[in-house]
Amino acid sequence: MIQTPDIERPPRSLIENLSQIGSATASAELNRLGIRDAQLRGPVAWTEGKAVVGPALTLQFMPLREDRYSQDEYDDPEKQLHRHVLYHTQPGDIVVVDARGDMASGVFGEMMLTYFKGKGGLGVVIDGCIRDYPKAKGLDLGLWLRGVTPNYHTQTGIFPFAVNVPIACGNTLVMPGDIIVADDDGVVVVPVSMAKDLANRANEHVEWEDFSRMKLAQGGDLRTYYPLSAEAQAEYETWRNEQEE
Asked: Quick one: which of 4, 97, 132, 175 could link to 110 by a disulfide (CB 3.0–4.6 Å)?
């Protein structure tokens, strides 16, 4: 019987604190905290308007070699590790897949994604493809993909090799349990050890951007209000205090 490890999930409070900041703010503030480039480059949003934040379940694919993997799509399903990563799903999880940028292998199809959704999964980030997209897009999951294909997962050149191990998705390191922030701008990975500092900085960032956005919409000077100048800082502080009353 195949055994695969589960992940250590971060406290729910960390997820909630990051839930409103967006990938652009997360990326910029992580850069200021020392992570120069946290973007998972390659997967893009295929479910417009969907935004998710949650811990990463990871799945690693390798180049197919027949002595290591020769099963047909439905032969001995329990040897197919792309199923096992989904078995670990808890509500709020996100599956992140290193599929090597392969454009000819559908990592998951409608049935697997339906199971994932039923267990409370939020979305999948795949450096590769899914299949059954016309039906999968109706599942209310977030889908960040390189593309879609009619092929099943091991039909051509890759096979699932390991579950909940460090992976390179879009040439970016993702550790099992890292926090994923994904929306229409893209996907960012947040190390759990930095999540609290990121949330504090990012929520402050969101607040002053709300003020700046309001002032710019009213015709305010870009040089004064974005970013906040010293001249505008006192005005912002007064506005923020008024919001808290």
From this structure: 132
pLDDT tens track for 57-103:
999 999 998 888 776 656 677 778 999 999 999 999 999 999 999 99
CB of 192 closer than 8 Å to CB of 179: yes
**How far is residue 62 CA from its own chain's centroid?**
21
- pTM tops 0.70, yes or no: yes
Closest CA to 89 of 166, 4, 27, 26: 4
Q: Are 156 and 127 in contact (CB under 8 A)?
A: no
188 and 206 inside one domain: no
Question: 3-state DSSP call for residue 187?
Answer: strand
Integer Cα distance of 133 and 154 in angstroms = 17
pLDDT tens for 210-221 read 899 999 999 999
Q: Are residues 127 and 155 in the same domain?
A: yes
CATH number assigned to the domain comprising residue 147: 3.50.30.40
Same domain, 128 and 224: no
